[in-house]
TrEMBL record:
Keyword Cell membrane applies: yes
GO terms for MF: ATPase activator activity
Keyword Transport annotated: yes
Intracellular or extracellular location(s): Cell membrane; Membrane
NCBIfam families: Na_K_ATPase_bet
Lineage: Eukaryota, Metazoa, Chordata, Craniata, Vertebrata
Annotated InterPro entries: Na/K_ATPase_sub_beta, Na/K_ATPase_sub_beta_sf
Protein name per UniProt: Sodium/potassium-transporting ATPase subunit beta
Source species, domain of life: Eukaryota
Membrane topology note: Single-pass type II membrane protein
TM stretches of this protein: 45-69
GO cellular component entries: sodium:potassium-exchanging ATPase complex
A GO biological process held by the record: potassium ion import across plasma membrane
Amino acid sequence: KFSFKLEKTSNMSGGKSGGWRETFWDPEKREFLGRTGDSWLKISVFYVIFYAFLCGIFVATILVLLMTLNMYKPRYQDRIVPSGLSFSPYAHNLEIIYKTDDPSSYEVYVKSLKEFIEQYNDEKQTDNMKYEDCGTTPKLYTERGELESNTGQRKSCRFSRRELQGCSGENDTTFGFKEGKPCLIVKLNRIINFRPKPPSSSDLWAEDDGLIGEIKYFGFAGNAGFPLQYFPYYGKMLHPNYLQPLVGIKFTNLTKNRELRIKCKVYGEGYTAEGIDGLFYVRVTVKQHENKQGQQSAFSKI
């Protein structure tokens, strides 16, 4: 004969009724998530004060930092003087490669040049409250008052893209890329209150390598340089419409199907011949036909 006996066992919650619900609310102890109302009030007040204290320290630190900053000029810019030299179009890895018979291969370079040169259109410089004529020949610096004086925005010298002639993109919308005579447009990087000075010697230009061919330079008033009347720059706050002077460089007879390594450097007082200031390298390869020979390279200075 078989018999059964039923016994009362304790539940998983340690004998308490309600199970997992009581972990949120215990009606006997009047606890929510293991804490009474007083306990929750105390810990809430503690964390409010604690985080308010942290926020106060953060805000005070920012305020002290802002008090030490000059709103018109960076405190330290000794490592960026003299100004660097940069160019357009944008070239990934400083390398320009394209085929003259394939517009899609140089479209990205032409687009980059068009976007850059657009700000130098004459119609964008008609506001006499923002722009002024600074002469038709190179002059000395244009002083527009003290840098740290709050006298309002300063006017900017007009610079027309027409000054770049063969590299202006007005007559040749491909900037010479289509015919295998590409242009580079170079400028000095903006540095607040920087005053470039001309070189002490005029014997500066090294002969170009025979594979590079003739190079033409187009700049303000027909000069291959940066006129001083466009300096100094007063910063984005006081000089929001500032236009850097430009120089167009046109390669008129590049050897095709060869990688040409070109070094471009600005000359002036403060720029040393062996230094890296105002210097960039770019590799240019213009393919006219499929190059079945091994690729060779040439080096030149501009």
